[in-house]
Hints:
Blueprint: E1 2-7, H1 11-20, E2 28-34, H2 37-47, E3 51-55, H3 63-71, E4 78-83, H4 88-95, E5 101-104, H5 109-126, H6 141-157, H7 166-169, E6 180-186, H8 193-206, E7 214-218, E8 221-227, H9 237-246, E9 253-259, H10 262-273, E10 279-283, E11 286-290, H11 294-309, H12 313-328, H13 333-350, H14 356-368, H15 372-386, H16 399-410, H17 419-427, H18 431-442, H19 446-462, H20 470-476, H21 483-494, H22 498-511
Parallel strand pairs: 1-2, 1-3, 3-4, 4-5
Antiparallel strand pairs: 6-8, 6-9, 7-8, 7-10, 10-11
Domain Response regulatory: 3-120
Pfam family, one: HTH_18
Main location: cytoplasm
Amino acid sequence: MLRLLIADDEKIIRETMCSIIDWKSLNIEVVGVCKNGLEAYDAILDEYPDIVLTDINMPKLSGLELIQKITQNRDNIQFIILSGYHDFSYAREAMRYGIKHYILKPCNEQEIIEAVQDAIKEHYRQLPSQNIGQNPLFSGEYLQKNLMYNILLQLLSSDLPTEKLPPLYESYLDFYHTPYHLCYVFFLEEVFVSSCISLIQSFFKSYGITASFAYIYVKNTLVFFFAEPPEGASFLPELGSFLEEKMPQTPCSFLEETYDALLPLLETLRRKVKRYETIYLYSGTHPITICNYNYVFQKTLEISDCLAKETEETAHKNLLEELKQLLLSVKDLDFLRSLVNSLLLRAMQTFTSLPAAELTNFMKFAASVSSNQEICDFLFEKLEVLYPAPVISGGNLKPFIQEILDYTNEHIGDCNLTLKWIVENQLFMNVDYVSRQFVLQTGIKFSAYLNELRIKKAKQLLINCDAEKIYTIAEQVGCGNNPQYFSHLFKKYTKMTPKEYIQKMKGEEGAS
């Protein structure tokens, strides 16, 4: 579900936009409703929305100033400007920052919905994980393949409803707007499955498509799917002829269906495939057999999720032991490998700070060994890193929280500093988890911590500063070349403007 923030200084407008539109039907969660630009900026730092619907003329920080500050962060945020000013200069200024959606007041509900729908499409078009290899968490072909493979394993090995999948993976895949092709190869005997998969891979490679597919085989039918390539898939009808030519020994036939999005495709796939007692899931040309793994798979991921939330040491230790016993009970080596990979991917998305390269090496190790015990022994050595124990002493912080504090202190002059950027580029962790943990560990939101740190440093610098050079202080504490924003921020926390603070401090010095 994408996250939306609304900013407008007119109470009736922001509250109406929040309530009159059925955001849930658009797969949108409203994470903030703000009354001025300064409040909106702090909310963006804390709530990391995907879409911001903002008025252009707001107090403390205008819509354009807000956009200017945020777009410097390299964040994939889609802005929709709402303005009552029929002046093209505002639209022209917005275009400089890549803003494509500009709505004039008064507007109706449908205009807003259409602009949001366009912003959603643009968000997914720009999403770095459309090419998963660009994402630090999923760099490399090995992890690309495991992502979709893990989705199918979870879909087919558990009773998790299909609609519950997007919240787990939508940071990396578009479930709602990217078209997909679902392909069937019928009348394919099991003995020819591996060679058929190899031929399909070579066929797609000849068209420059190197994405790794996961394949499902049930009852003489091979199934696979892939996202619509930018140049289209007009070549697909040729695949049937290609397979007939290369595999004359088996009378297979080819069929293709097109879906507007990944989620309905997965629901169709689930409905058609799960009626069979035995399902073969292929990663490349190597299958695992999915039979009665429902309980084990669901229980493993359930324990993993509990470990992410558990704050009591003994309970955390008991959960780890339960996880070990569950993994030791798995006899099928291929299923154990897939289950371990699912745990690793879940940990990456939830809270581990283990480097992606090390996780990839572990997956490769699991694929190379021939003993369940070897896999379990190696995994158990990593559990304390994958699922770190809760901090016992109230005076200590989790290492990754301390790292955030240290990084923020060292880079306080960076006007582009956000928790989201630190998490994704320094820690390689899940921003939702870290954001929650930051509040639990420190007692305040990141934006408040950052602002308080900036004001503290500004006070130190202002003591020896002339009123005419306040702009230099703004730059040193991370407010960029925007002294007006610095002044608003300083007054919010001290009830004084920077000039008033200088006069006060110099007055006290003179009196002493």
